[in-house]
Amino acid sequence: MKISLFEQAPYRYLPPDFEQHYESVCSTPYALTDADGVYSSIRDFMDELMLGARAGFDGVAVTEHGQSSYDMVPNPDLIASALAYMTEHEGLDVAIYPMGRSLGKTREPVRVAEEYATIDVMSGGRLVAGFPVGLSYDANLNNGIPPTETRPRFNENLELVLKAWREQKPFGWNGKYSQHPQVNIWPRPLQAAPPVWITGIGNPRTMQMTLERGFGFNYLSWFGAELTGKRIFDRFWELADQVGVPRNPYRLGFLQTVAVAETDERAEQEYAEHLEYGFRKGLGSIPPEKLGLPGAIDIRGVQALLKDPGDFGLYYQMKTATFRDLVDAGVVICGSPATVREKVAAFCKDYGIGNLHAMLGFGSLPRDLAMKNIQLFAEEVAPHLRGLWSDTEHQHHWWPERLGGVPQPATVQSEREKAAV
Amino acid sequence: MTTTDTTPVISEEAIDVWDGKLTIRVKVAGAGPPLLYLHPAAGLAWDPFLSHLSERYTVYAPEFPGTSVGDPYAVHAIDELSDIVLAYEEVVRRLGLDKPVVVGQSFGGMLAAELVAHFPGLSEQLVLLDPIGLWREDTPVANWVATPPEQLPALLFHDPAGEAAQAMLAMPEDEEQRVAATAGMVWAFGSTAKFMWPIPDKGLRNRLHRITASTLIVWGRQDSLIDVSYAGEFAELIADGKVAVIDNCGHIPQVEQLEQTAAVIDGFLS
User: What's the rounded Cα separation, in Å, for the pair B22 and B94?
Assistant: First the structure.
C-alpha cells in the first residue's frame, strides 16, 4: 500500500457566515483576505507537505484550482517543483505527486509536458503525473474553454504530452486544439514512462479509459465515501473485468480526509470545527451548476444524474453539514489512531484500494494541529496500513521505479498475459 | 392584427449537408414565400409566433446540430462558427429557398446575422430578435449557460409569472419525459455554447457591415439577458437597420409580447 499526504491550500480565515453570502470559487471577493492570512495559509501548507515528506509518507500530493478560496494552488507544478528540489536536497525518497494539471483546461499542453518532465528531473525520477479532466467552473468559467470541448481537449492534450515524453525525435503536431511545427522538449522525464493517474468522480467513460490505457485511477471521497464508495469502486472493478485487466489494487487511488488525535473524544474536540469550516466553505459552497455546466457532461450522463444523483452523495447538503453528518457520510474519518486504522483498513480492503491519499490539512486547521495530525498519522496509522496488499501477487506498476514501482506492461494485452503467468 | 391559436400542420425534412457528415432536421409549415427561422440556444419550440408567421410564409425552422431529439452527437460534426455558417448556407441551398426572409432569436439571431453577413445575396429581409453577437464591457451579456436553472426565468422574462412565460417554462408531468426534456435542454445549451463560449462575441461586429438586407432589430425593453442598448449597436453597424423596442418585455418578445412583436414584424415585412 502506498500512502501519500494530500494537501490543499485553503484560505483559513474566512468569516463565520461566509457560506451564507459567497461562493467558494470564481466570484469569491478577494477583499475577504488579508496579506498575512494568505501568506500563512500558503506557507503552512508548504511546511506541512515537507513534514509529510520527512515523516515517511510515500508521496506528497497537491492539485490545481483557479480562482478558488478553498485551494489557492493555481498550478500544482509550482508547489511540486519546490517539493522536488527540497526533498532531493534532503535525500527523501518520496513521490512527488501533482495530482492535477488539468488537461481539459490547459491551452499549452507542451508546457505541461515540460513542467512535469522538469519535476521528474529535479526529483531524480520521483514524479507521479496526475491529469484530471477538469472541473467545469475551472476549465470553462475560469479558463474560457467551451464545456463541450473539455473532454476532447483533454484527450488530445494527453496524447500530445505522452508523445512529447516518448518520442526521440522532433515531431510535428497538427491537433484540433494546438498546432506545433515541431515538438522537441527539453528536458525529458528521467523515468522512461512516468506513472500516469487520472482523477475522476465516477464517470464510467473516464474509468474505462484509464483501464484501457493502463493508467491509475483516483477517486476522491469528497461526497462521502460511505454513500458513494460502493457505487464507484464496484463500477470500477466491474469495468476492469469487462476490459479484461486484473483487479490489481495498486491501480486504484483513494483520497480520504482524516483527522487523528489521541482519543476519539479529543479528535472530535480538536478537529470538528475545522472540518465543518473546510467542507461548508469549500466544496459545499461550489454551486452545482458550476460543477457541471451544460455540454460538459454527456447527455446520457445528464440523464443518469437526473434520475439518480447518488454519485454526489452528501454534496447537496454540504453547505450546512455538521461534523456528525460529515463523519456518518464518510466525508471524513476522525478519531483515535485505532479508530482511524480500523476504518481506513476496512474500506481499502473492501474495495481493493492500493493507494491512499490522506488529506490531513483542511479548512481552518491551524498549523500546529495540522502538524500533529500529520505526525500522528505517520507514526500511528500509516505503518499499520502499509502492508495491506503485501501478501498478494500484485505488483505496483503505477509508481516510480526508484521508489519500488515496477515498470508496467506496455499494453493491456501484455498486462493480461503477465497476470496469467 | 390577429395571432392564431391553432398550430398548422408541421412536416419535417432531413437535409444532409457537410459532405454527408451532418443531417439537419428542418420543421416546415405554412404556405407562401420562404421564411427561415433560426431558434435560440434552448432549441426549437414551435410556438404561436411561428404559427403566425406560417399564415403568410412557408416557415423553415432548422434544428441546430445537437438539439434534435435522438441525435445529440450531431454537434460533434462541426467545430468552428464559420463552418456552421457554411453548413446553414448549404441547408438554404438544398431546400431551394430563394431569398428567404431570415428571422433569428437570441443565439439564432447571431447565427442569422452571421449567415447574411457571410452571404449578402442570400436574403433581402432580416429580422433579429434580441440577438447576441456583440459585447460591451459596460453592459455585459449575462451568462445564461452558467446561470442556475431556478434563476433562468427571471433572466429571460420581464414577468416570469406571466401566462406566456409559464406556458413556455412548463415541463412534462411524466418523470421520464421530464428527465429527457431537461437533459435535452441542458445539451442544447451546451451544443450552442460550443460556438459562443465564453463570450458571445465572435467578431460579428466586424462583419455586420456586409449585411445588405433590410433589417429590423426587435428588442424587449426590459431584456435582462442582453441589454436593450445593444439594439442601437446593431442598427448602427447594419447599413439598412431599424429598431423596434417592445414594452413590458424581456429577452423573448415573440413569446412574452406576441401581439406587439408580430405587429411590428408584419409591418416591416409587408
Answer: 13
Beta bridge partner(s), residue B23:
B16
Q: In chain B, what is the straight-line distance between the N-terminal and C-terminal CA atoms, in Å?
A: 13
> What are the cell numbers at A370?
495540522
For residues A23, A25, A30, A34, the Cα torsion angle rounded to the nearest 10 degrees is 90
Put simply, the answer to whether B198 touches A293 (Cβ < 8 Å) is: no
Q: What is the mean pLDDT of residues B181-191?
A: 96
Inter-chain CB proximity A289 and B149 less than 8 Å: yes
Asked if the C-beta of B172 comes within 8 angstroms of chain A's C-beta atoms, the answer is: no
**Calpha distance A16→A339 (Å, rounded):** 30
Determine contact: A295 vs chain B, CB below 8 A: yes
3-class DSSP state for residue A308?
coil
pLDDT of the residue at A25:
97
pLDDT tens digit sequence for A199-211: 988 889 899 999 9
At A417, is the secondary structure helix, strand, or coil?
helix
The answer on pLDDT for B5 being more than 70 is: no
Q: Which residues lie below 8 Å from residue A75, measured CB to CB, with a gap of 6+?
A: A64, A101, A115
The predicted structure's pLDDT at residue B3? 56
Q: Which string of DSSP letters, residue by residue, matches B115-140? A: HHHH-GGG-SEEEEES------SSSP
What percentage of chain A exceeds 70 in pLDDT? 98
Grid coordinates given for B242: 431599424
Put simply, whether A15 touches B (Cβ < 8 Å) is: no
**pLDDT tens profile B142-160:** 999 999 999 999 999 999 9
Instruction: Report CA torsion sign: A304, A306, A310, A314.
Output: positive
pLDDT digits (tens, 9 = 90+) for A91-101: 999 999 999 89
d(CA A40, CA A11): 9
Give the best residue of B80, B84, B145 to mutate against chain A (max A CB count within 10 A).
B145
Distance from CA of B49 to the nearest CA of A (A): 27
Cβ–Cβ under 8 Å, residues B167 and B249: no
* Strand A179-183, strand A171-174: pairing: antiparallel
Q: Which residues of B touch A287 (CB under 8 A)?
A: 148
ipTM: 0.91
Q: What domains are defined for chain A?
A: 2-418 (3.20.20.30)
Given a contact cutoff of 8 angstroms between Cβ atoms, the answer to whether A303 and B180 are in contact is yes
Adjacent-strand bridge partners of A218 = A199, A253
Q: Where are any strands of DSSP class E within B148-267?
A: 214-220, 241-246
Kindly indicate the confidence band of residue A421, based on its pLDDT and cuts at 50, 70 and 90: low
pLDDT single digits (tens) B218-250: 999 999 999 999 999 999 999 999 999 999 999
How far apart, in whole angstroms, are the C-alpha atoms of residue B254 and residue B256? 6
Mean pLDDT over A149-163 rounds to: 97
